[in-house]
Amino acid sequence: MKDWYKEDLAYIHDAGHSDYALKSAPGILDILTQNNIREGLGVDLGCGSGRSALELTKVHYQVLEVDISESMIALTQARVPDAQFRVESLFKVDIPSCNAVISIGECLNYLFDKDNTAQY
Predict the structure, then answer these.
(1) How much is the CA Rg of the chain, to the nearest whole Å?
(2) Domain that holds residue 90
(3) pLDDT 10s digits, 19-74
(4) Which of 48, 76, 80, 110 is least buried, going by the fewest C-beta atoms within 10 A?
(5) CATH number of the domain residue 99 falls in
(6) Count of domains in the chain?
């Protein structure tokens, strides 16, 4: 899976789309709190550069970051070193028992992922 979002595009995505993840985080945290979910593991599918994960870890969630791009995971590892990481298609990942699963942005629409088929 080395063909997706190499270093240059990962950097551009991080610099250009960070606000989307950052502005989504308070709403996600509110939804979790409203449902009495205040701790535990959160799985971030299509995690990008880890902006959402950082916000989750600030309030003491554990995070599993999943992205098809090794370069995106590298940015996430630098930003949130205490998270768990998987370079894998979000359509194939074995999601462990967790308290929440999030997916921010357009990652469900990526057609370059050969696992994104009409079956899903």
Answers:
(1) 14
(2) 7-109
(3) 888 899 999 999 999 999 999 999 999 999 999 999 999 999 999 999 999 999 99
(4) 110
(5) 3.40.50.150
(6) 1
Three-state secondary structure call for residue 102: strand
Q: Which residues contact 117 (CB under 8 A, 6 or more apart)?
A: none
**Residue 11 CB burial class (10 angstroms; 0-12, 13-18, ≥19):** middle
In a domain? residue 91: yes
pLDDT value at position 6? Answer: 86
Q: Is residue 28 part of a domain?
A: yes
**Which pLDDT does position 116 carry in this prediction?**
59
d(C-alpha 74, C-alpha 85), whole Å = 9
Give Cα 89 to chain centroid, integer Å.
11
Full-model pTM:
0.85
Go through the chain and tell me how many residues it has: 120
